[in-house]
Amino acid sequence: MRNPQLNRHGELQHLLTLDGLPREVINSILDHAAPFTEVAEREVKKLPLLRGKSIFNLFFENSTRTRTTFEIAAKRLTADVVNLNVSTSSTAKGESLLDTIDNLCAMNADMFVVRHSASGAPVLIAQHLQATGRDHIHVVNAGDGRHAHPTQGLLDMYTIRHYKHDFSQLSIAIVGDVLHSRVARSQIAALNTLGVPDLRVIAPKTLLPTAIESMGVRTFSDMREGLRNVDVVMMLRLQNERMAGALLPSPQEYYKVWGLTPEKLLLAKPDAIVMHPGPMNRGIEIDSSVADGAQAVILPQVTFGIAVRMAVMCMLAGQ
Ligand code: NCD
Known about the structure:
Layout: H1 23-39, E1 54-59, H2 65-76, E2 80-85, H3 97-105, E3 111-116, H4 121-131, E4 138-144, H5 150-164, E5 171-175, H6 182-193, E6 198-202, E7 218-220, H7 223-226, E8 232-235, H8 251-258, H9 262-265, E9 273-275, H10 288-291, H11 298-317
Parallel strand pairs: 1-2, 1-3, 3-4, 5-6, 5-8, 6-7, 8-9
N-carbamoyl-L-aspartate is lined by residues 65-66, 143, 149, 152, 182-183, 237, 239, 277-278.
């Protein structure tokens, strides 16, 4: 079977993962996003690039910022957006995922934006559409299990490029619960593709996936070593809801050792930026004074996320 992300002309048909996505495609999405940041500053925040398209937001797992920014992005492009409340939808009555998809296809959907707790759900939908000859419908993965969160990875790349310009000169540390993090997997894939020479992961050993080094990162368990002279600190949320069994002594202990405090941040370069995908656990993985401090670019990440999602949707389904 051909790569399910590409159509028969080799163009991006779905956005499912950043793993294996060529550098030119990533750069092209970031380039497309840049002018969309200006749309947000206009009196009339609208462009007709997806006029007449029907986009279904299918969030089988909770989300505030991802769901809302996809919705805003689609509306700014003049698409019709339908948000399915999955907890009260037919899947809650036992309908299968693919039956739900078939029914929405019968309503002439043009795009599905899918978040699911099961790794692989968006890929399954894309393969189903392909196998049933509905090649004109696009799927965007908005986060599946521990697997991937490609638009988050892309908005993170946009943010880094905005503040730091040249990926080939950077030292970057990803800190925290890598084991459960689809965000970290997408970040690592993109940062390697974009040629970051010094990519580090800082985490307790119990929160690192096995064979993490094969992903092209250096691992550290000590914040003071790992943060030394980095240009970018990318924090991750401690994903308590995904933890089976005790992987950590306590949140207080975690904060003491792996929480980003002003004092630990001093080890990074003085102009280092601090990122977080949200939602943040203040006082657990990040100190409030860092989260609200001058080096944090956490809220700009959210704003850039809209432009990046506009770019992805346009590249997939725009005229
Ligand atoms: C992340 C997610 O849901 O994967 N959040 C987000 O999309 N902004 C990260 C997280 O939940 O920790």
